[in-house]
Write a structure and sequence with these properties.
mainly alpha
């Protein structure tokens, strides 16, 4: 669970950065970046965290 807390924090920071640049990315592109960096991650877990963090920040992703 600690691993996901760190992942959640990194994803949140990345989403904040994307929001500032107004450079929309798809959830799949964002997830791919994390999955390439850590092949042990599960795609569904990463996508769920991205969705949750984007919703918390009112950031639209497609």
């Amino acid at each position: 669970m600690d691993n996901y807390a760190e992942l959640r924090e990194r994803i949140g920071q990345d989403l904040d950065t994307l929001k500032k640049t107004e450079n929309p990315k798809s959830i799949f592109e964002i997830a791919d970046d994390y999955l390439l960096g850590d092949p042990d991650l599960k795609r569904q877990v990463v996508e769920d965290i991205i969705k949750e963090e984007a919703d918390r920040r009112s950031i639209e992703i497609h």
